């Protein structure tokens, strides 16, 4: 497989160049829209070349930074490399890189944490400023100049449409057989010209398999042959399996009550080990003909498809462990019939999430006794990764689960607290909380009713009496709709900052 | 106008009865779905009769309560009367009654505060339990049994469809000429059977003018001749006018920048004096051919229509002062061509709010320096009214404004605080904050950038140095993404609870 096999648009051959030469075309101080979603489909060579250029320029007394917009998280070659050289002024809408996180939390980098369904439209509306250049990984270029997307679609359509200049990174490591696995919808518009999105089934094709780009804007084509960051999943542990068990029992109960169809509704699953365990639990569960409508397809969902339990999945990215990736490559013709990768404005679109009636399952950092959820901040101030698509799904879903082990840091931290130190999902958007201790069904309850259910069902036994004590005393303290003792509400977090533990 | 003129379905004549007899048909302990949205279109006679029955039963040693579901807020005859006799077990999804509020905040009544766009579907999904009876105000009944809606549509379609029994309150005070002003969409469904909602313009008709009901379920028809609670608006004061001025300047700026069409986009306006002042400001502003897509149509929007500045408005309720109501009645043929009242699942639907690109303007109780908004709770614990539709609009809008005077209680309370005591709209959903001091455009900013803009532009000068001091010290204290000092973050609220003032 040579680069020429992948770049079949003749006009682009003269624009093939090194990553260094391409990185030199990125304007200092500019806004750069890069591909990449959950460690998939991000450019690999160009960001590293850009980082080297930034470092050299700084050494020469000409420091500069760029602002980096992506789909979601990327990998050390992008976020890590650019953060390492202090090359990022503003990062949006999501990241999960340790170097990046450190720069954000030490005040050296700005981060705008956005709902993933908002990003493309805010760029279109002009709310984020001008997009100077797009740097997009593709798996190939057709003879007519259209682009075959790679392992993530993310915001690529929007970046290609909006950017003044486009740099393509052609990754010959991505199998050609992914051609046909994408569905790029070109029917979006800016108000007042919007139309209904014509999708009523999760696996319905509404667009075309290729990305369009104005060839005149393409200033560079760079070759890469390097795999995505592989996600490592821990084998489901006891805690994850207990959480998965509670969810599956609950889903069965809802089917029996007539509140869910027998084949459930399309599943969305957030990132991480717990989410993966829930999907693994469905492998041996009673449900058939499942469908997925999610943002990132990970090992657990791939296994469900392989097993036949899940008939199809829609996502914006595919992010696998090396073992799952080998299976994906070996059986790619099978998977291509069952997987569609779409722009994230479609995979996460409120209109579609509500219409299709998604069952949303997302991880959280902590919940408070009244059902507010913190998905992003450690101890109120430090950013973990970002809200990602959790709000797109939770707000508009049919059922919204938030899951976490009941304790963290070996039991030092309770994930159920008197008051969240930061709120990403309000009481209005949280229906069901699950820990290994149990499941709290909050639908239709008042805050005081929720508190008792959450304390009884979800809190760890070590923290349960402390939460009950807080709740009891708060009910004697003041306003009784959402009883709080404000001087104590955040004291668990304060104690943790002071001592490393929420335990008294 | 006799009742017979209004009840033209012959079979119902035998079911005409007194409010007392109808109230006796409501099952003790049941769930009752009542009409009513923002003090419009609520049943008047039956809830008062029910309250008398509850009081009598309690006196006889047979206490009972009901759970009351509505569209949104009602009036003293409904929420006030039932709360006064401790007759409400659970209230949802919104209220603004002083007696009701007192019962909620003293722990004597449960309240489930919901997004208004979620209510109908959660009832359909079975998440709220069985609906025993619907009590719905209508202006008349057609010869074929269909119902002519009154001044609010709210959740009436859903209550009529779902309830085991239906009680109709026919209000002969509502002018017959409102017939034709409603658009009831019967195309909704439960997943997986949902289709796109076929609306692309705010004033587009997608349904039919009448409500359907299974005549066999109608157990009582009761006559009323009593007007809605009239909303009193204060004449716009200096503070409201300054807020309105900032918003109008900003909208003009956005038009000049090409980020808004010259005729703007459909306007949503929350309830209250400030919202009304903004609309009044548009009366003399530079914009023409405005449209409204909102939940409640109040005086300000009616005046915009009358003036010709606004060509049409869509809402779920019409709630006017007595002066505006007289004008509405006098010119009802004019207004009927320009106003459509729809079910609240349509007026507030995320799909439509996003598609149409609404400019959302909602009031708030407080915002924190990072752009989180509290719309519901006083000092973290006491419920004011509820979130209403503010989240439906803010999350999905094109532009989302939150407005408040910079101080409350004669300057004792700052409406800009270090940390919100409750969060209803997260940093991800808040674009623009406005006080009489100025306007903070938060689009695309990081939390630290937002803090400086909010302190500089929105805080009252008396509190500005205190906020700056907190922000400066928090930036030296710990995590730098959203700098906080947790032991101080809620201290302003604690001080206010202790002393009645946030001032040190």
From TrEMBL, chains A, B:
Keywords: Hydrolase, Transferase
Residues binding CoA, per UniProt: 270-274, 365, 385, 389, 409
InterPro entries, per database record: AcetylCoA_hyd_C, AcetylCoA_hyd_C_sf, ActCoA_hydro, ActCoA_hydro_N, NagB/RpiA_transferase-like, Succinate_CoA_transferase
Membrane spanning stretches: none
Molecular-function annotations in GO: acetate CoA-transferase activity; acetyl-CoA hydrolase activity
Pfam families: AcetylCoA_hyd_C (PF13336), AcetylCoA_hydro (PF02550)
Domain Acetyl-CoA hydrolase/transferase N-terminal: 9-222
Protein name as annotated: Acetyl-CoA hydrolase/transferase family protein
